[in-house]
C-alpha cells in the first residue's frame, strides 16, 4: 500500500510517499480503508521532534518510533479480527489512532475500541477533521455551564472552530480571538463577540470571562488570569506554529500552570487528550444533531502530505486541513 513514511526528524522534506507492507487485522482489530485523514499540530510536532523534551515521552529520542504520521481518519471497514463484535466489512467509521499514528496511508489497522461509526450527516473528509480537534474542544469545555462567558483564544484554528460551535451549543456566550482575516469566519460559527488580536489584547481590555480556553500559548499565566472572573477557569492546550527547535516549547506554560495551580483560587487546567471512544460517540451525536459542522480550509492528496503539513506548521491555517486518500 501507499503511505507517507518518516525515518528521521526534520522538516516536511523527511516525509516520503512510498510503498509499505499493508497491515492485517487480528483479535479485536479492524482494517480500515482510509478515505480521508486530517493534519493536526501534533503531526508536525512529532515530525520535527519538537519540543525536544517531548521525545522522552515515548515518541523516540533520536528518530520517531512510529514511521507513518497521521492520527485522524475516516473510511470503510475492509476486514475484522476474529474477536470484533461492533463492526463488519463495509461499515463507515472514524477514529483517532493516538500516538500509534499511521493515518497517512491507504489502510490502517486499529482496535475496535478506538473507532466509532462515522456521523451519518458528514462526508468522509468532514468526519476525518473531527476526532482530535473535536475531542480537544469538547474536553476543554467540560466545565462550561449555560449562561457563562467563555473566551476561545485561537478561535479560527482546527480546535477553535469546533470550540466556538460546541460552546454555543452548550448555551454559553462566546468570544473568539483571531486575526483580522478570520474574524468573519469566527462570527459565522456563532461567536457573540470577536476580538482581533492585532488590534486588541484581551488580557488587558478589562473584560472578564468564566472560562478561557487557550489554544495558542501566546500569553503569560498572569495575563490569562487577568481576563478571568474570580475563581474562573483557564484551560491550556496550545499547538502553535513552528518557530525553530525548542527544548520545552508550549509545554513551559503548562508546566508553570501545574506548579501554580495548588496555590491560587483560579482553576488552571492542562488539557490531555487520551483516547476515549465515549467522546467519539458524543461528537458523533453532536454532529448529527447540528451541534457543529467541521470547517475545512484546504484539502490535499496523500502524495501531497508534506505540503499539507508545511502549511499547517507555518501558515496559521484556518480550521482543518484534510488529506483525501
TrEMBL record:
Gene3D superfamilies on file: Medium-chain alcohol dehydrogenases, catalytic domain, NAD(P)-binding Rossmann-like Domain
GO molecular function: oxidoreductase activity; zinc ion binding
SUPFAM superfamilies: GroES-like (SSF50129), NAD(P)-binding Rossmann-fold domains (SSF51735)
CDD domains linked: MDR1
Domain Enoyl reductase (ER): 10-323
Pfam families: ADH_N, ADH_zinc_N_2
Protein name: NADPH:quinone reductase
Species assigned in the record: Lentzea albidocapillata subsp. violacea
